Amino acid sequence: MPSRESSAAYLRHVGDLEGNAGQQAAYNSCGHCVVLAGPGSGKTKTLVLKLARMLAEDVRAPRGVACITYSQECARELGRRLEALGLRDAPNLFIGTVHGFCLRHLLMPYARFAGIEVPDPITVATTRQIETTFTRVAENLLGINQPYRLHHMGKYRRVHLDRDLPDWMADPDLARITIGYERALRDAGLVDFDDLVIQGNRLVNDNDWVLPVIAARWPILAVDEYQDLGLPLHRIIHRLAFDGGVRLFAVGDADQSVYGFTGADGGLLLELGQRDDVECVRLQLNYRSAGQIIRASELALGEARGYRPHDPARQAVVAFVERPGGLKDQAAHVVDNLIPEALAEKPGRTLGDIAILYRAAPVGDLFADALAAAGFDYIRVDNAAPYKKVGLTSWIEDCAAWCSGGWRRGRPQLTGLIQRWTGFRSGRVSEIEERRAARVVTEFLFRHRGDDTPAAPFVAAIRAELVDPLSAAEPSLADQREQVRRMGVAFAPEGRLVDLDLSSLGGRDGSPQHVNMLTLHSAKGCEYDVVFMVGMDMGAMPWAKESEAELSESRRLFYVGLTRARDAVHMLYSGWTIDRYGRVRRLGRSSFVEELEVRLKVEGI
Ligand SMILES: Nc1ncnc2c1ncn2[C@@H]1O[C@H](COP(=O)(O)OP(=O)(O)OP(=O)(O)O)[C@@H](O)[C@H]1O
């Protein structure tokens, strides 16, 4: 519930919704509600305010609201926005990924009563264990040159949920590999992330008794970025909401569905919005981007959605930049010219207002080198990052932010850090234990305050004193241990981040001193003043030989990139790429860029 001292912030934000009938309708909804809306239309803002309202008015602890997000980063962003309203982590508010929800709130409490086959304690396999198990099983079954990759099996498992139906054998080899792989993992006492959701789906769909139990604990379920969450979660939601009486509040945008390759399907969101028992709200006003960017994004998508800018007078730049010397040339131009120009254009603009977006991590390597050589700091969110942001690693980063000066400004708040810490435990925590934990964390953080100190000893100490003992003892953190271990490796003597200082670790997210470098996929949900979309060449955007469905998904990815910008988008291309065999392919610039420039010219923009 919003606390007294900060309810002014809550009321001010609610006041923002007044001029927007759609946001109001969603905020006032009483039953199932789905918000379908374009980029920058305030879906997240509406969701956060609705969460605050539902917690204050519609449920009473220990009953609560579970909010499922696509990634841990989205969960962290929601947590931050709630904290700004005075609503901190509370035991009756779950914000986390679908895997976290299935692990903590479906499988751990109920799997054994339903005869669901998961190891006890539930232990999530590391990436390496998953890869070696897959390779061993697939090669045993089909020989050393077998054609399947791990991601083929992943998608197959997520899309073919009903193994009694003939469809399960649509690809008999993949079905056999899946069975063998799951058996091998189970024999080793392990599950993987997909298991958590697949078994969670089995639990709720095969056991009527579990529905009222879950509904009693979580009478309200909220879902962010619904379009990215895939069939297993859709089935779980369907069952809980429409058979189990759980109230649903979901937000999403099918045009931003970019995880089809994992089995996600934007159509599931639209299907939900068409139900008679669901109030469907559409938001048309874009608060983020200036008019030219909104129009360019619709032209890039090839669909007229009728989105309007909140402030029609604002002007934007949509620029097409050719750099014939390839990616290095693009990187040099961005670093030497475009970033300094962007900083000079608007007083108060910082590096943190700028993002470089690319399709694949190796492109990021080139840009990272160019930024480092020019003395710019950056934050990188892609697969080349040394560890992923999960609850515990994000908590360590936020503790670093507090220790390196955050304590002076109260950002992040110490109470929030402590509450997140106690929230990592799945069982009931007594008041005495809670007080003890608060004391231990507070003492640790006070001892480690310091601005220019290196981060490595801090990471080693917080792991040794707090995080490792907790994660070893707490089964519900099984899905996060691997990332904490990887974080430790990155800060070990030979690690990639060994030279990072404490404030940079704390500022790895949303820091004004760092340029943001993200893959287009990771950029979902983010916004920046100026966006550089780099490597916009045929063979990369789209990839060579994409199917029709893949091409549509690439187009949506391009759309996601464009719509991150408030004031300016620069699209950089060279007209050629290097393929995976090292050959130069002169296929011209991206067809999306080509089309967009022509369409904008026709409209005189
Ligand atoms: N009613 C409003 N009044 C003023 N500003 C608003 C309002 N609604 C949203 N905004 C602002 O618009 C921006 C975009 O909002 P938000 O991030 O919630 O959009 P979104 O729909 O989740 O975007 P995306 O799908 O692109 O991630 C934010 O800066 C937010 O504060």
Overview of the molecule:
With 605 residues, the protein is an alpha/beta fold. Helices cover 49% and strands 12% of the residues. The chain is built from 23 helices and 16 strands. The chain has helices at 7-16, 21-28, 43-57, 72-84, 98-110, 127-142, 150-159, 172-187, 193-206, 210-217, 230-243, 267-273, 291-301, 327-345, 361-373, 391-409, 414-423, 431-447, 455-473, 481-490, 502-506, 548-562, 591-603; strands at residues 33-37, 65-69, 93-97, 220-223, 247-252, 279-283, 285-286, 308-309, 317-322, 354-358, 377-381, 514-519, 528-533, 565-573, 577-578, 584-585. It binds adenosine-5'-triphosphate. One of its GO terms (molecular function) is helicase activity.
Mean pLDDT: 92
Cα end-to-end separation = 47 Å
Q: What strand order characterises the main sheet?
A: 3-2-4-5-1-6
**Low-confidence parts:** 1-5
Helix vs. strand class: alpha/beta
Shape field? globular
The largest sheet, given as strand count, sense and whether it forms a barrel, is: 6 strands, parallel
Number of strands: 16
Question: What Rg do the Cα atoms give?
Answer: 24 Å
What small molecules does this complex bind? adenosine-5'-triphosphate
Query: How much helicity do the residues have?
Result: 40-55%
In DSSP terms, counting alpha (H) and pi (I) runs of 4 or more, how many helices? 23
Strand content is 5-15%
Protein name: DNA 3'-5' helicase
Keywords: ATP-binding, Helicase, Hydrolase, Isomerase, Nucleotide-binding
Domain UvrD-like helicase ATP-binding: 16-290
Organism: Falsiroseomonas tokyonensis
